[in-house]
Amino acid sequence: MDTFSPTPTIDGYICLPTLQHLLEHIRGSTIERDLRPYQSILAVINTHVHRLADESDEQLRARAALISQQIQDDMLAPGDVRSEFFALVSEISQRTLGMRPFHVQMITAIALHQGKIAEMQTGEGKTLAAVAPVALHALQGHGVHVLTFNDYLSGRDAEWMGPVYRFLGLSVGTIKAGMSPQQRRAAYACDITYATAKEAGFDFLRDQLVRHPEERVHRGFAFALVDEADSILIDEARIPLVIAGAVDGDHSDAGLIAHLVKSLESGTHFDTDEYERNVHLSEEGLS
Fold this sequence. Notes:
This protein is α/β, with parallel strands linked by helices. 47% of the residues lie in helices and 10% in strands.
């Protein structure tokens, strides 16, 4: 996956690669530092923003509904309406939150929609930058997961960005620890679901243990946006998610196990480490 790593200059979004960055690219680095290709897309978005400023709330809602219907009817692909829709989100954000995405946020939104990892500096507003790509994918009607680092961020971001999503006709749900299966099922059924990667992961594991399909809490998976990608995809990924269970009684037969172990031959059925404390069975030994 390509990595988008903007380092904005004073104007907010123009970033030219240095000689060192060019050398990194020649050596095979996938980090993208040259933002000039995004300027043409940004210019189109800004053109739409100026035009939408004169429209009423009802007209903006009608535009969102039309785009959603056209995407769900396969008349348009999300990429075909990206510029117009991102401009729509920009105008709605200004009206509902009092915040209009800056250029660096809008360029990040474009990169995220393209499936890239975007690195932003502290304070550049990644929460707002994620709204446009999340909403555009949610219009397809298959559900979107926004995976955050902790429960606080899930609740805060869902509540904070909720007015924009609801203006667009999209429902928002939040997953938190301690929720019942019914509450989780309702939250996952929303167009957009904010949850920690750990909660979503454990819900997936529990869904594999249910006796009937209707007892599952997740619906199908379509699109996920990962917040704090370095923490979730690297740090947290080192800790496996495990569901432990208990069984009634002890069903092992120590005598049978001892008899089987005596029949194993070192070098054929198993090997040990240099201290002869750890045993590794071979394929023949497993059989």
